[in-house]
Write a structure and sequence with these properties.
Layout (H helix, E strand, L loop, with lengths): L1 H16 L6 H16 L6 H12 L5 H11 L7 H12 L5 H12 L6 H11 L2
Helix pairs in contact: 1-4, 1-5, 2-3, 2-4, 2-7, 3-4, 4-5, 4-6, 5-6, 6-7
Length: about 130
């Protein structure tokens, strides 16, 4: 029941956010998140967590970007259940931009570190 409610709330937030994903601040924040995910092992560093928390708290950014930052902040070897659910919702939404869907998929599947394929995908999509 709780997971269903969380998915609905996240879905509403994400639907309104997709059109904003490509705006400059959203794009640079998404690139920042992708860089952190591509380089982290097990969990984000304190400096990276500070960056992610700033992104999560920035109400001018798209909800999808903030949700990704929150999910990465909470990674401890893998995304927690709430983060996985949010990223699965985003990755499965056909209205989301390809970059957002790809990054959400990598975050949701994170297991100690991004795979070599996921790192290559992020490097290509986000010019890392």
């Amino acid at each position: 029941m709780k997971l269903t409610l969380i998915r609905k709330i996240i879905g509403v937030i994400l639907l309104g956010a997709f059109s904003q994903f490509s705006m400059a601040d959203n794009a640079s924040s998404a690139t920042e998140i992708a860089g952190i995910v591509a380089s982290m092992n097990h969990f984000a560093s304190d400096a990276d967590k500070a960056k992610l928390m700033a992104i999560s708290a920035d109400d001018s950014l798209a909800g999808a970007v903030r949700a990704m930052a929150t999910a990465v902040t909470n990674i401890a070897h893998a995304a927690n259940a709430e983060g996985k659910a949010a990223m699965a919702t985003l990755a499965a939404n056909d209205q989301a931009p390809d970059r957002a869907r790809a990054l959400a998929g990598v975050i949701g599947n994170f297991n100690h570190m991004a795979s070599a394929d996921d790192k290559a995908k992020l490097t290509e999509l986000f010019d890392l």
